[in-house]
Amino acid sequence: MRAPGGRMVGTRWLWLAAAAGCLHAAFSLYWAVGGTWLLATVGQWAVRARAESPLVVGGGLAAIGVIKLVAALAPVLTERRGPSWLRRAVRAIAWIGAGGLVLYGGANMLIAWLVLGGAIRPDGGYDRDAMIGHAALWDPLFLIWGVCLAIGLWLTRRRSTAQPHEDDPDESD
User: Fold this and answer.
1) What's the structural domain count of the chain?
2) Is 168 part of a structural domain of the chain?
3) Could you give the percent of the chain with pLDDT greater than 90?
4) C-alpha distances in angstroms, 136 versus 7, 42, 88, 128?
């Protein structure tokens, strides 16, 4: 049995996840329209690609930004609205996304810190700005997004045999 207010706390975690995802999306969209601040923390390859093919890369970044926005906002926006089939579909996809974000963000953050600390020495060296960006900014943000999403999904789960909670009037949908 969950504590009263668990769904409300879970929704807050979903909003935290949405904030992390929207921050990621905002940078993708900013770079899509030509911004360059912190682009080097993704890698010099991204700086070069943006300079060499601004329309193609900008279009790709815009698509990535929109996908991130949808992925960030869908779980929290469908939590109490819309048909139950949509909520279930979004939650199933969100669980997969949460796992992917935690694994991707956590593994890449760890590897980046190991490279920066000298425990891993890539052949041919590495892009220090990008490694710092992945160790301390982008991959931790993916990890935070995934962890907050998983916690929010767990706390807002519905049990088919449970009675509706007083803080969840539509649980029986």
Assistant:
1) 1
2) no
3) 82
4) 31, 11, 34, 12
